[in-house]
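Inputs:
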Amino acid sequence: MEIEEIYADSLKALEVLRGVIHKTPLDYSRTISGATGGNIYLKLENLQRTSSFKVRGAYFKVWSLGDERKKGVIAASAGNHAQGVALGATLLHTKSTIVMPEVAPLSKIEATKNYGAEVILYGKNFDEAEGKAVEISEETGKVMVHPFDDPKVIAGQGTIAHEVLEQLSKKPDIVIMPIGGGGLISGNAIILKKKFGDNIKVIGVEPSYAAKYSEGLKTGEPVNIKNVPFGLMDGLIVKNSGKYTFEIIKDYVDDIVKVNDAEVARAIFLLLERGKILAEGAGAASVAALLEGKVNVKGKDVVAYITGGNVDMTRISNILNYELARSGRIVKLSGTIPDLPGWLDIVLSKLAQAKLNVIDIRHDRITHLIEPGKALIEVIVESSAPEAIDKVIEELNSIGVSFSKIVP
Ligand SMILES: Cc1ncc(COP(=O)(O)O)c(C=O)c1O
């Protein structure tokens, strides 16, 4: 594999992509800088066309096929690659076929169709869909566009690094980005290391539950995941290490850190609340690593890639509720009151006096879990002041209503 060729291709890709995709903002984040002690800049690829960086590599790969693209292209993906290939091909007047697992979310299927692809639903998981895509490619001559293990795709993803250097107009000390199959970090690391060598650190972030490259680098041998887990960082859950990407990551990436879903949920919440930035799980992984102090960034100029923003609204609401509950801004209280008229009103009045907004309430008298003559109440309240809740609990307890927080 020619590293020089990938570097030269990344410059070509920069030209080819100009005017086709967005030059996404590179924004200084006061919040994350304040929280970490570094100067943190966010490269907002969640604002890219198709809401992820994937269109860079996909478009450049399809463009590079030249006349061969008349045969059409095919890919297997349930995620951002699907949309990247679909849009890339359509913009280049090329037919695309995307094989998605039967369980792919409807929103992703619709989005991929809307970008112009023919979508085939096949198999229970990504591997089965990929097998089908290979079969169709062999039968029809449609060209496979691999999501990461392809030098052209790698070069296309690398264009982010060129853009960042143009936008920052100084050398960053650290550039941090997520790793799934490794195409993104391979392209970017080649460019950053070629320009600055040891004077720049390229750091990758993997999910703790799918950490192929962290494991593989320990032994020097590529690792494949046996049981593909489910998690928030779905874009980073990739079963097999790539042939090209493993070698590049081994030679060009300085360190790989791991984050879990709770850490990523916190990062998504903070990005949305403070920065008004909507990131998906994979897209928020680098910020999670920074906020959790997994990389020492004190006094350093750091660029973190927010790689995508494709996240279902149901999942966002789940993440927001999780974080609100974890941080004590939504609290569940449970207790028993005498089963007599007026007691529910007493509880609600106390909560209202303490300015605790009731979101939900459940009242259960038909249960053997409490003493006879009592009623069970569960209340969910919103609170910006956790002390107010402790005070109300104390007051209620003092008048014979035993209340406590379900989750402290
Ligand atoms: C949002 C997002 N971030 C990061 C990645 C990881 O990219 P790569 O597979 O090239 O490592 C992906 C891959 O699909 C992604 O969708």
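The first strand starts at residue 26 and ends at 28. Flag for discussion at group meeting.
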